[in-house]
Amino acid sequence: xxxxxxxxxxxxxxxxxxxxxxxxxxxxxxxxxxxxxxxxxxxxxxxxxxxxxxxxxxxxxxxxxxxxxxxxxxxxxxxxxxxxxxxxxxxx
Length: 92
What we know:
434 Repressor (Amino-terminal Domain); mainly alpha
C-alpha cells in the first residue's frame, strides 16, 4: 500500500518520478522501487515523504488509528461486551 499511496499522491500533483525524486533528494530508482514495492524507504525518509505531501506517515502506510482499541487491563467479559456493542453498531 505504501508504494501505491506514494504513486497516487505523486500523480495527483502531476509529478514525474524524476521530479519527486529530486524534491526528496533520492534517485529515481529508489523512488521507483518504493512505488513498486521492491524496497521500503527508511523511517526518516517516510517522514520526509509525508511532510512533502502534507499527510501523516499513518496515511502513507494505510494505518488507521481508529481501527484499534486499547483493551489492556480489561477482563475477557468486558472485551466481549465491547465487541458486541461494536458489532451491533455496524449492523445498524
